[in-house]
């Protein structure tokens, strides 16, 4: 009997999962709450509940040669680094070429996913969905969660004393769409990740003053690397990986920091990470150092407290008469349609075997695709995740190691 697979979300991960199921002879049904594919990359003028949201100016951080599906290259006329609209166009082309639309139920909301009473032997799930106000329950042999991790914003209001007394506006970067509304304004951006740096540099062309507050600093890389090649074609290679894994730690750390400081010395720009050797995800921004050195963006440490109109930083300096605060403070992991015991998290980090399977399950029939945050491109990573996960669910890949680990030491497993 052909196994039925429920797929939650029709973004990049969902499409990769549909394709993998079809290729392995499984019967996928994808539930997408919006009316289109693309997930994160489908721009909308307003943030929509339950789905990721991007701003108008978002470009990819990976080059097209490195981030395509293995069997579906980008059209030759597409630029090396793409605007979100071009990537969305590619995603639609992929879904059309692979004939994936027929497996997707649009405008369908997943209410709950629960184990069936005989789950320990069958591995089956009850999936409750809603469409046009009507609820429907169906039984599936496996579930692939592809809803992403840029959905539920982390807005740490309680972490900043005095914020409730602030008279200006404040909101999460998820609600930011463009700079026009900030003409002549004084704006504080909290967070030195990709979104925070993008928003700050974009606002610096419109706003009167922009300050970025960073708690721990970050490495800032350019999309253009040695000899004008895309960064990932130069940096993500077998040789570079060999060096990182085989050099003595002290030498590897020195080499890493030297590479990160090649373009500019981070310490001189107030961007130096507190732990420079930590291999956390770098920021990709071609413009930020120039905006800082020209005085259009200022970098400050963490905020100590807010007043009605100003921010006091930990170095004692004050940013006064603030009009708006934008929190680029990341996202929280949440799966409201699942029993919280199925996917466990600690400190907002989800523990998954191989970054895919929740270890507490008696049967490996529920997987999470695309949650991993790798240094390189997301599309080929999620494609490989989907291929392996589908073979596990089909039974053609061995999971004995997984079953042995679930019985004892799963909590000590790394995320990846």
Summarize the structure in words.
- A five-stranded parallel beta sheet has the order 3-2-1-7-22, with helices on one face.
- It has ten helices and 22 strands.
- The chain has 416 residues and is an alpha/beta fold.
- A hairpin with a 4-residue loop joins strand 15 (303-306) and strand 16.
- It folds into two domains: 4-151 and 331-412, FAD/NAD(P)-binding domain; 155-222 and 263-327, FAD/NAD(P)-binding domain (3-Layer(bba) Sandwich), CATH 3.50.50.60.
Question: What secondary-structure arrangement, pairings included, does this model have?
Answer:
Elements: E1 4-8, H1 12-23, E2 27-32, H2 84-97, E3 104-106, E4 109-115, H3 119-122, E5 125-131, E6 134-140, E7 142-145, E8 152-153, E9 169-172, E10 186-190, H4 194-203, E11 209-213, E12 220-221, H5 231-235, H6 238-246, H7 249-260, E13 283-284, H8 288-293, E14 297-300, E15 303-306, E16 311-313, E17 318-319, E18 324-327, E19 331-332, E20 345-346, E21 349-350, E22 366-368, H9 378-394, H10 400-406
Tags for this model:
416 residues, alpha/beta, FAD/NAD(P)-binding domain, 2 domains, 10 helices, 22 strands, globular, disordered C terminus
Quickly describe the structure:
With 416 residues, the protein is an alpha/beta fold. It is built from 10 helices and 22 strands.
